[in-house]
């Protein structure tokens, strides 16, 4: 629409004026993803977002995603201004892992190496030995396991149990879940596969174990997009936030992408696989963040940030 085109032009101008760059996640609205690409920013998974922000010379990062992504950017580059379209955009994994309880859990097992998912608060990262994202969680736990280290894993129990199966590690696990991925249903997915026998099933590892079991490819958002390009199938059933369809369809316009079912009884809930916090990001709020950063700037307690930087650097150096 005309209004959107106007917003886009204004944002482009503001990005230049403020020497700012837009760092967006694959779950954000397609128009945000497209704008990030058009303006020299990035659209990426959470590890690549962290890396991009860390390396980019801009003074200001606009992180279109959820709070933990903005906090990670701020911890990695405290000298930069980190803005978010909506500071209330959080994550059920972050909410379900309060620092006091998580820290007490860790204190009970002082001999354990603490590995936390990036989808956590700065305080939880500061309590951890390692931070991982879904794209390198397996490799890092595999390495720790081969060194014989006992591991505490938090907060996503589905990603945790997937890692246990793949690596043979037995981890003490926090019982968190992603409210979006937790809704995918194995029985309905099997039924859908009967309808599309040639389809490949792509699953984000935050999904329940019985859904991950059915997958032909499991991985981070970037890894799922790559799989959709590289696999020869013409049809894909995709179990992750539907924001990802924009990139998959753009990369392979001749292929067919179908949403994995989230409802029971084989019914597909058309609006379920959509993260409510990712959906808070919009063109209007991006423009507002650039115009008046008050109330849209990420601040991290410097003491926590200094501690959280250690496991974050371990992750970035491991993946490098
Ligand atoms: P990725 O690291 O795969 O982008 O995942 C982030 C996330 O929040 C998934 O729900
Ligand atoms: Fe968190 Fe799930 Fe939303 Fe990802 S999709 S940000 S894990 S609530």
Automatic annotation (TrEMBL):
Gene that specifies this protein: nadA
Name of the molecule in the record: Quinolinate synthase
Organism lineage string: Bacteria, Pseudomonadati, Pseudomonadota, Gammaproteobacteria, Alteromonadales
PANTHER family to which the protein is assigned, alphabetical: QUINOLINATE SYNTHASE, CHLOROPLASTIC, QUINOLINATE SYNTHETASE A
Single Gene Ontology MF annotation: transferase activity
InterPro entries: NadA, NadA_sf, Quinolinate_synth_A_type1
Location relative to the cell: Cytoplasm
Entry cofactors: [4Fe-4S] cluster
Pfam families, alphabetized: NadA (PF02445)
Pathway(s) of this molecule: Cofactor biosynthesis; NAD(+) biosynthesis; quinolinate from iminoaspartate: step 1/1
Main location: cytoplasm
EC number: 2.5.1.72
Positions of iminosuccinate binding: 25, 46, 117-119, 134, 204-206, 221
Coiled-coil stretches: 1-24
Cofactor note text: Binds 1 [4Fe-4S] cluster per subunit.
